[in-house]
Structures are given as structure tokens and as C-alpha cells.
Amino acid sequence: MDKRPWVDPKKCISCGACVSLAPKTFELDEKDMNATAVAKSKPGDKKEDVDLAIQTCPTAAIKWK
Ligand code: SF4
């Protein structure tokens, strides 16, 4: 994967959908009071699964960067 997914913390509503669809790429940040999703430093899911997570995000908070 050349590009990496990035979560906009201002848009994320912590629904957990991306974590369910691509658990090796996204996680909820337990250190953040709002537990927003963050992309792991080494995304571990297939691009299709990450794309599905991006499409499923209800607030369009995830982008490829
Ligand atoms: S799917 Fe979107 S709103 Fe839900 S936790 Fe992931 S980034 Fe946040």
C-alpha cells in the first residue's frame, strides 16, 4: 500500500465500524477521551477492506493520504 489511511479526528464519531471492517488497520484510541479511531502505523488489512471501511464510515472521516 503506497498511500495510508488517515482518520480526521474532528469528523470521527467513534462508531467503531472501521475497526470492525479492518481491525488490523484501525483502532479506537483509548487514550483519547472521545475514543476516536486512528489508523495504525502499519495497516494490515487488504486494500479492499480498508476501502470498504472508508465507504462505510458514516461521517466520511477516513481518507487515503
Ligand atoms: S467508521 Fe468513521 S466515524 Fe466510525 S469509528 Fe471509524 S472513522 Fe470514526
TrEMBL record:
Tell me if Transport is a UniProt keyword of this record. Answer: yes
What GO molecular function terms would the record report?
electron transfer activity; iron ion binding; iron-sulfur cluster binding
Identify the residues that the record assigns to the 4Fe-4S ferredoxin-type domain, covering every copy: 3-31
- UniProt cross-references to InterPro entries, sorted A to Z: 3Fe4S_ferredoxin, 4Fe4S_Fe-S-bd, Fe-S_cluster_ET
Keyword Zinc applies: no
The UniProt function text for this chain reads: Ferredoxins are iron-sulfur proteins that transfer electrons in a wide variety of metabolic reactions.
What is this protein's name? Ferredoxin
Origin organism lineage: Bacteria, Candidatus Gottesmaniibacteriota
